[in-house]
Amino acid sequence: MQAGCYVATRAWIPLQTSSDKGSRRSLVVRSAGSRMELSLTRPDDWHLHLREGDLLRAVVSHSARHFGRAIVMPNLKPPITTTAAAVAYRQSILKALPPDSRFDPLMTLYLTDNTSPEEIKLARKSGVVFAVKLYPAGATTNSQDGVTDIFGKCLPVLEEMAKHNMPLLVHGEVTDPNIDIFDRERVFIETILSPLLIKLPHLKVVMEHITTMDAVKFIESCNEGSVAATVTPQHLLLNRNSLFQGGLQPHNYCLPVLKREIHRQAIVSAVTRGSNRYFLGTDSAPHERQKKECPCGCAGIYNAPVALSLYAKVFEQAGSLDKLEAFTSFNGPDFYGLPRNTSKVKLRKSPWKVPDSYPYTSGEIVPMFAGETLEWFPSDN
Ligand SMILES: NC(=O)N[C@@H](CC(=O)O)C(=O)O
Ligand SMILES: [Zn+2]
Ligand SMILES: [Zn+2]
């Protein structure tokens, strides 16, 4: 599988140390023999699809190996719309983890037209639900039960969330079939997100998996600490050519769909400048191979096994490795008001081949950059 990569190559700039907020030494780049090595505070994944059943059991260890926590998306069938369902889903994730794992799944609720303000109180009280997810109905995988009119029935719920400091996580695309698919994020910002924040200026919002320069401009126009964005490896490394290069490439298809090169560049430059408004969210979204390679293939890229390696590549190529750790490990917990992790992970500059697929009981999952060689190898010690 040929996956396009459109990052200008830059010479490797060896760094000695960089500091966290100018004080504590955190990221260390050193040469162990001839191998470069990064030591990072353990990252968290602020946007992850873990699925359920066989698929959950097949994928969860790929995230749990290197990430401390993850915001787990609620778009199951049926979706996780109540705190009780979120608590039960969390138990099934914990059960699927390797015995010695300390991975902490942070749960979310799926917002519907009928979510009640009471449910938000329950969610906050539970201590395990950390956000509510807005899927415009029909926008993406398993979004059919999502919101049909955010300005209709949802306002009391959103007001309750603002009161409890509970973030709204947004799949930011309009669903109007008359709007070109490449414009749906920009139009969502103009017609929904921006007016919503004028109505509810105290609502904390994460714009998930941003894909455009319009999103970057919007995020930077908002109050810091109140509106932020997650960014995926695919939207940092690929542009829309990767969907068609050498033939149709279903494993590069996700929503929001990959955009033009100028958008990719705008996102790379926003993230690698070191702004605390952006943090790591892989949007790792596994689908069994046959569900991707068929006449009506699902949207979603499985990147959990390669994500850290790819983020390091992006920051390295931008000459900003000193900004990597804040993106992977500080900005997310700071936004959510959670403590930063205390343990570390390492990334060694040592080539490794991405498996062609991960077989499991019900088929196989093809990862992003399947069969290709990547440079940064993540390990726990
Ligand atoms: N990103 C995707 O293309 N797919 C996600 C849903 C989502 O995050 O929109 C999925 O659940 O498969
Ligand atoms: Zn989404
Ligand atoms: Zn997602």
UniProtKB/TrEMBL annotation:
Gene3D superfamilies the UniProt entry points to: Metal-dependent hydrolases
Enzyme nomenclature, EC number: 3.5.2.3
Domain Amidohydrolase-related residues, every copy: 45-356
Catalytic reactions of this protein: (S)-dihydroorotate + H2O = N-carbamoyl-L-aspartate + H(+)
Pfam families for this protein: Amidohydro_1
Keyword set, alphabetical order: Hydrolase, Metal-binding, Pyrimidine biosynthesis, Zinc
Biological processes, Gene Ontology terms: 'de novo' pyrimidine nucleobase biosynthetic process; 'de novo' UMP biosynthetic process; pyrimidine nucleotide biosynthetic process
GO CC terms of this entry: cytoplasm
A molecular function GO annotation: dihydroorotase activity
Pathway(s) it belongs to: Pyrimidine metabolism; UMP biosynthesis via de novo pathway; (S)-dihydroorotate from bicarbonate: step 3/3
Domain of life of the organism encoding this protein: Eukaryota
Family as reported in the entry's similarity comment: Belongs to the metallo-dependent hydrolases superfamily. DHOase family. Class II DHOase subfamily.
Protein name, as recorded: Dihydroorotase, mitochondrial
